[in-house]
């Protein structure tokens, strides 16, 4: 899946997703992490 697709599914900007991938921009909220996990089809 492309970066833009993941960001769209997680309801965040592709720029913010890129920052997260690179470890920049601070810590994401629990909601953003949950949305990313769902977008990437991850389970706990």
Automatic annotation (TrEMBL):
<protein>
    <submittedName>
        <fullName>DNA-binding protein</fullName>
    </submittedName>
</protein>
<keyword id="KW-0614">Plasmid</keyword>
<dbReference type="GO" id="GO:0003677">
    <property type="term" value="F:DNA binding"/>
</dbReference>
<dbReference type="InterPro" id="IPR010982">
    <property type="entry name" value="Lambda_DNA-bd_dom_sf"/>
</dbReference>
<keyword id="KW-0238">DNA-binding</keyword>
<dbReference type="Pfam" id="PF13560">
    <property type="entry name" value="HTH_31"/>
</dbReference>
């Amino acid at each position: 899946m492309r970066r833009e697709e993941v960001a769209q599914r997680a309801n965040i900007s592709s720029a913010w997703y890129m920052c997260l991938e690179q470890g920049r921009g601070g810590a994401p909220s629990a909601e953003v992490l949950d949305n990313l996990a769902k977008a990437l089809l991850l389970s706990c």
